[in-house]
């Protein structure tokens, strides 16, 4: 296919605005999938995507379509993208492989927070944007109002905005014509040394590592020996093909085309998303511009319920990280849970999806610890070998908010990067704790402003200037600690706004925080998996909440024991779990009362001894209970 007949584009929008349904109509109109075989969310291949009604993984598909007016044959490469804020990295990778993007806005809901975020990503990549209002068939559709929003917020011209119904197919063929007219063809060179950008990858049991690629220059054929410039990995192409949307082998991929290359690599680290593939033996080939390093925002521990499954968990993590390059992990050990991994996620939904995939796809029973964020803890020089002159210091200072000034007073102090609450230093050593903050954008009807501001205030947020999109909708801006929004903030926001509010956030730096480590002791022994880093002003409330949950989750023993929450050296919340008692006097049927007293005294002495040497087994359900919201 000639380059001027190739179009690479993606669909971007907020979650549930109809991206996947629009992709279904594209497949149907172009004849890529027969009408009697297509089903709802056809490109969402995972069971989780079908069940939850959301797109988790970007999905490429190749469509061959003859223009109905000119009769010319075009090759359309579409990448369906996720809409949730946790999967923004998937969107950024899709954009790098495209020249245009279809911006979809729901006619009943208008512009949402993730719509704005995705449009800004597309503008950074200098993509051609095609604005589309979807769901015009619904009785509640407000096309004119949404059009005014798009004119004001994005600056589109009125004649550029298309109105379609992805469900009925109305206006979708015209949209395809506009894509061919407006989206430029790839700027590729067929005669140059072959180069391809890896924008996604996965592991296949038979084909090994499979790279999803956009060919920038030259061409690749089956059996070619290839070389990954970044990882310095060699391989041979076992199979090369395109997505229709299933993998279909072909003989070659040429410049401008999107497809896959099966490498047979068993070492999953050899294929890195953002790397450049070229032919082996070529000299002087430069790598393509890759992607920004993904910065995990939420951290949690993953442990197998059965310790013997640790090797299976390690293999599963290796393979899943190839399929999801935003997942990071490193080994860790817990006294309560044994061997496991400390994992970094892009958000709470991302963490939930990884949990589900590990259990479903790899048949593992797992325990996830409570999520937390990353802290920088400055500690007094007497307690550490590290100082602010260490190589990581530049990274630390770059992340900090402008309000923090590194004066001479801090020179000589060391720092510790804390991703696990159990690693938090003792209070006597701490000079300052720095926590990550985010810029939070919330789009909602104006009637909910008061409730949302109260919610943000409870979560230690700062108010920023407000923007009115129109007379009915407003874009609220806040700066909030990341730790305050990763657990139940989104659910509370939806509840307060009757489901109408949407949110998006991005990191804005580190700020000092009045934070302490909250330890949990069961029978006077610390359980490291329950430790949390909490604001001092809310520590008492959180401590009481945790011990009350554990009182119901940990079964009674043959002896009395205490569940305590400790802040520094001070116990701030305690509950007692009474002993189970056997009726040792049941066998008595008469005689002097001293016989009964003798047995009770013997039982009391035994329980006292058990309390001294006994151990309390914390069941798996207790760890889930602490994670669960009240």
UniProtKB/TrEMBL annotation:
It comes from the Bacteria. CDD domains: EF4_II, EF4_III, LepA, lepA_C. Its main location: membrane. Residues 4-187 form the Tr-type G domain. It catalyses: GTP + H2O = GDP + phosphate + H(+). It is a peripheral membrane protein. InterPro entries: EF-4 (IPR006297), EFG_III/V (IPR035647), EFG_V-like (IPR000640), EFTu-like_2 (IPR004161), LepA_C_sf (IPR038363), LepA_CTD (IPR013842), LepA_IV (IPR035654), P-loop_NTPase (IPR027417). It is found in: Cell membrane. The keyword Hydrolase applies. One of its GO terms (biological process) is positive regulation of translation. GO terms for molecular function: GTP binding; GTPase activity; ribosome binding; translation elongation factor activity. Keywords: Cell membrane, Elongation factor, GTP-binding, Hydrolase, Membrane, Nucleotide-binding, Protein biosynthesis. GO terms for cellular component: plasma membrane. GTP binds at residues 16-21, 134-137. NCBIfam families: lepA, small_GTP. Belongs to the TRAFAC class translation factor GTPase superfamily. Classic translation factor GTPase family. LepA subfamily. Required for accurate and efficient protein synthesis under certain stress conditions. May act as a fidelity factor of the translation reaction, by catalyzing a one-codon backward translocation of tRNAs on improperly translocated ribosomes. Back-translocation proceeds from a post-translocation (POST) complex to a pre-translocation (PRE) complex, thus giving elongation factor G a second chance to translocate the tRNAs correctly. Binds to ribosomes in a GTP-dependent manner. This is Elongation factor 4.
